[in-house]
Amino acid sequence: MDLDRAATTPVHVDVLDAMLPYFRERAGNPSSIHAAGRVARRGLEEARERVAAALRAAPSAVIFTSGATEALHLGVLGTLAARGERAHVVSAVTEHAATLAAVRTAQRRGAEVTWIEPDADGVIDPDEVVRALRDDTALVALMRVNNETGVITDVARVGDAVRERRGALLVDAVQAFGMEEVSLDAFRADMIALSAHKVEGPKGIGALVVRPGLRLEGVTLGGAQERGLRAGTPAVASAVGFGVAAEFAATGAPDRARRVAALRDALEAAIAAHEGVLVNGAGAPRGPKHLNVRIAAVDGEALLINLDGEGVLASAGSACAAGSIEASHVLMAMGLSRVEAASSVRFSLDDHLDHADVARAATRIVRAIERTRAVPV
Q: Is 278 an annotated catalytic residue?
């Protein structure tokens, strides 16, 4: 039973069907001027139009990348390259590792960074972000939904203040897409980073959606593709798949979110009733699909092994950090000890499950907890 849908999702059959021709009979290079190239170019641009429509943006706003990590790097480093690398940046210590790495790279290159800390529930106070803004603030980089806890940041409350100072707001919307309206206008954002494989699209493709007129320089050099912002032969088949997946994600997102939240809440109630189980971020507004719990007297990795034995997929946090010996930087920033962070597990759901699935999963999870506790840590 897959309760690790924040890590990745299977490719939807309609997405795969749309992609397949671009591996064979439509496999031209979209930069070529001959007929095969024109066919591939048409597929690429139609995909761009579909992603743009899902985000209520102009097609020219969509820059295809290899994933959200590259999109975030382009948003951070490309903005600072265009505005001066010694500018001021505001971000949060609970951001995804991709954003943290990009901002720290900017810091090494001369940018001054103000790091915002969360409260005990993981909430990033938008008013604190606004207070941190300066006249030379070039960039604010925040995630909408935290990938580990699901805690929501009210990015729209930040956006107008950033723009008043002629700065740019970059929003990591990877975990929000498909669960609410995601658009530059809704978030009052200048850039939005997305990943296809979180919404039943293929791996290896993402996008940075950029407000028209924003100054940005490419960080992957060598060609004029993607408006000169991302050199390299476009992955047409993947872009086509992303276009279909984006349409699915944007269609009925609020209803999907309500269904998934009901499933998540049922799972939370069932396992939080078990002795020694606490919900991380319980007092915060959370996205509908995340449930992060810490379990007393349990080693998280050992529990994951026992969950796997029960046929339940979960994670110890971000999939990008899987296998790392480091405790979750997000949970520790919330005030958890290293031991408490190491005893935490993330479950994440989608609407392919039903309440019977959740009831079965809860029984297996409790059984795995008891089995793990039976072995001394």
A: no
